[in-house]
Design brief:
Length: about 140
């Protein structure tokens, strides 16, 4: 029987070299929570992308830290919240990208939030204050 109802907090200096540690941590918790290899890979990739977005677009030199909160609920809900204490992510970046325009203009990037939404069951962007946002990603365990 896997432990349920656990909550983990993971804080680490915000640099791209530490994204491997983030993926490893989240992957281990997801595996321990009963997810299979494919789901663990999806969860780790979504969290990696969220953290990379914070480092690239949100964090300032003063706020460069990756803050994660992972909740494994007995109900089967597994959530990861990434805190961003930097520049605000505009809501329009959360919408489905116009792939034809992106190809035509050869515009780089901009697919991260779309990828996260494709990999996870639920995704919520919450503006907590003028300089703080959270991105919560949810994956549900299938009945076992």
């Amino acid at each position: 029987m896997k432990p349920r109802g656990s909550e983990f907090v993971f804080k680490i200096p915000g640099c791209t070299a530490n994204l491997e540690l983030v993926r490893e941590f989240v992957g281990r918790v997801a595996r321990r929570s009963g997810f299979g290899d494919s789901e663990v890979d999806d969860i780790a990739l979504a969290v990696d992308e969220a953290c990379a977005n914070v480092l690239e677009h949100g964090a300032t030199r003063r706020t460069r830290q990756i803050d994660l909160r992972v909740k494994d609920e007995a109900s089967g809900r597994f959530s990861i919240t990434v805190l961003n204490r930097g520049a605000r992510i505009p809501n329009e970046r959360f919408a489905k990208p116009d792939s034809k325009r992106r190809i035509r203009t050869r515009e780089p990037g901009g697919l991260g939030l779309y990828l996260i939404r494709a990999l996870m069951d639920e995704v919520e962007l919450e503006h907590r204050s003028a300089r703080t946002q959270s991105l919560t990603m949810v994956k549900y365990r299938s009945a076992q």
